[in-house]
């Protein structure tokens, strides 16, 4: 037996094997803990608990390192494309030119959704949040494609993966167009993945739409930065839901709902609303930072803090630089960016944030860029979901490849001891 950890309990000693990862991380394998001692572990929020071994994404939270399949996020953001990164995450290696061309062509030619999706969207209220609409629509894909739902059939899985990657931009744009009361735009297969998304979002049948290359490149890079992040809340949701052997569409729909939460992907919308409220109320950055230290969820400094990063989120560092480049390229003066920079400067000098190792995360700057490009605020988290989709898919595939058992945590019961039913007349 390799390295072990010893547990002494009630006069007994149990040795638990250690698992060591390729980057030197170590875990105690508790697989035999309950059978050997009757004990279970307790770790609400899973801050100290690993759910799986994975070869997809590596994060070093103390040093602010993020790599997809070993490639540093900085190099991928600089040199790659979102579809190439999607291929990398799903298949494990960078594609050859032929592999990328085949993958791109397959995605490009499956972007349309069934015409009945228009009726599905028309049944939703005009002010439906696009994340609710996308979660519903992705779940509904399972009703349109009953032929490709078996997670144990590799061909059906491949078809579902390509359908999802191809159709989520179309679904996302339908959610937006429905909220605007504008006609849905069909995909244009002559355009790039992001260019097609932009035209479905912002084109109308009334005039020709030109894709802005600056915006196209910025969004492609934003999607790369959001593509995976190991076992975050929504990815863990996709794995747990997927472990019941439900189809891919059902698992991804659950992931979209988990991402929507303001503590998770919903934070990018919250950041902009926070910056706008500071501007509208005429608050100084100092006043708001003091309010954020009051330790209640409602006035937190949104876009700051992270369960894993106890250093600057490398994605935030890239986005901070990109925000200036995109805004100057678009000729946009952003009061919100100025406020964000002031907040960051104050927070990074403040002991409250330093002691708690609270740094800007991926959501702190992304919204400023999305807003400057004309993306509606309630679509920000949808943009996060578009980026995270290949990561969710890769993690779901890995969970099935590892033949993981159904996820079923235990608990410690703290409720009433046994008691007996009292008839209503006697209560
Ligand atoms: C994402 O997991 C991932 O990888 C997620 C993600 C991904 O790519 O998938 O990176 C994407 O979700 C980024 C995080 C986006 N969320 C936000 O920006 C919301 C604001 N931040 C938080 O609410 C919070 O920091 C979390 C949810 C991100 C992390 O929460 P933790 O690890 O459970 O930390 P905590 O809530 O226990 O806070 C620890 C302390 C508390 O103070 P004390 O009780 O010690 O006095 O720090 C304080 C908190 O009150 N705190 C904040 C704060 N975040 C934490 N105080 C003010 N402003 C904040 N933003």
Structural account:
Strands 1-2-3 form a three-stranded antiparallel β-sheet. It has helices at 33-37, 73-79, 82-91, 97-108, 117-122, 130-144, 154-180, 193-202, 213-225, 233-242, 248-260, 267-281, 285-292, 314-330, 335-349, 351-355, 362-372, 380-401; strands at 4-9, 12-20, 26-28, 57-60, 65-68, 71-72. It contains 18 helices and six strands. The model has no long low-confidence stretch (mean pLDDT 94). Helix content is 52%, strand content 7%. S-citryldethia Coenzyme A is lined by residues 229, 232-233, 263-265, 267, 292, 295, 300-308, 356, 358, 361-363. The site of s-citryldethia Coenzyme A has 23 residues, from helix 17.
Give the helix/strand layout.
Blueprint: E1 4-9, E2 12-20, E3 26-28, H1 33-37, E4 57-60, E5 65-68, E6 71-72, H2 73-79, H3 82-91, H4 97-108, H5 117-122, H6 130-144, H7 154-180, H8 193-202, H9 213-225, H10 233-242, H11 248-260, H12 267-281, H13 285-292, H14 314-330, H15 335-349, H16 351-355, H17 362-372, H18 380-401
Antiparallel strand pairs: 1-2, 2-3, 4-5, 5-6
Helix pairs in contact: 2-9, 3-18, 6-7, 6-11, 7-8, 7-18, 9-14, 9-17, 9-18, 10-11, 10-18, 11-18, 12-15, 12-17, 13-15, 14-17
The protein binds s-citryldethia Coenzyme A.
Residues 229, 232-233, 263-265, 267, 292, 295, 300-308, 356, 358, 361-363 line the site of s-citryldethia Coenzyme A.
């Amino acid at each position: 037996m390799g390295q072990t950890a010893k547990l002494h309990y009630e006069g007994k000693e149990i040795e638990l094997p250690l698992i060591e990862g390729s980057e030197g991380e170590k875990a105690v394998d508790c697989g035999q803990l309950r059978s050997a001692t009757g004990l279970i572990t307790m770790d609400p929020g899973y801050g100290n608990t690993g759910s799986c071994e994975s070869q997809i994404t590596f994060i070093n939270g103390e040093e602010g390192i993020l790599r997809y399949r070993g490639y540093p996020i900085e190099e991928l953001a600089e040199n790659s494309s979102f579809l190439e990164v999607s291929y990398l995450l799903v298949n494990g290696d960078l594609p050859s030119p032929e592999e990328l061309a085949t993958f791109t062509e397959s995605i490009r030619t499956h972007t349309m959704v069934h015409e009945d999706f228009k009726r599905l969207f028309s049944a939703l209220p005009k002010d439906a949040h696009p994340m609710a609409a996308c979660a519903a629509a992705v779940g509904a894909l399972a009703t349109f494609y009953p032929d490709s739902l078996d997670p144990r059939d590799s061909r059906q899985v491949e078809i579902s993966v390509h359908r999802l990657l191809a159709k989520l931009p179309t679904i996302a744009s339908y959610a937006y167009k429905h909220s605007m009361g504008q006609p849905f735009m069909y995909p244009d297969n002559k355009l790039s993945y992001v260019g097609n998304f932009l035209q479905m979002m912002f084109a109308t049948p009334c005039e020709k739409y030109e894709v802005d290359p600056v915006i196209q490149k910025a969004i492609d890079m934003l999607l790369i930065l959001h593509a995976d992040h190991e076992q975050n809340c929504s990815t863990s949701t996709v794995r747990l839901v997927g472990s019941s052997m439900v189809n891919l569409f059902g698992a991804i729909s659950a992931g979209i709902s988990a991402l929507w939460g303001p503590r998770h992907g919903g934070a990018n919308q919250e950041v902009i609303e926070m910056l706008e409220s500071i501007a509208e109320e005429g608050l100084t950055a100092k006043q708001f930072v003091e309010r954020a230290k009051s330790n209640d969820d409602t006035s937190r400094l949104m876009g700051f803090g992270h369960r894993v990063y106890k250093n600057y989120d490398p994605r935030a560092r890239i986005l901070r630089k990109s925000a200036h480049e995109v805004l100057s390229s678009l000729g946009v003066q952003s009061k919100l960016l100025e406020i964000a920079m002031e907040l960051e400067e104050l927070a990074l000098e403040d002991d409250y944030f330093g002691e708690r190792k609270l740094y800007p995360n991926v959501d702190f700057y992304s919204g400023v860029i999305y807003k400057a490009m004309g993306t509606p605020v309630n679509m920000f988290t949808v943009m996060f979901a578009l980026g995270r989709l290949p990561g969710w898919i890769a993690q779901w595939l890995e969970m099935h490849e590892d033949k993981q058992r159904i996820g079923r945590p235990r608990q410690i019961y703290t409720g009433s001891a046994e008691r007996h039913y009292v008839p209503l007349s006697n209560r």
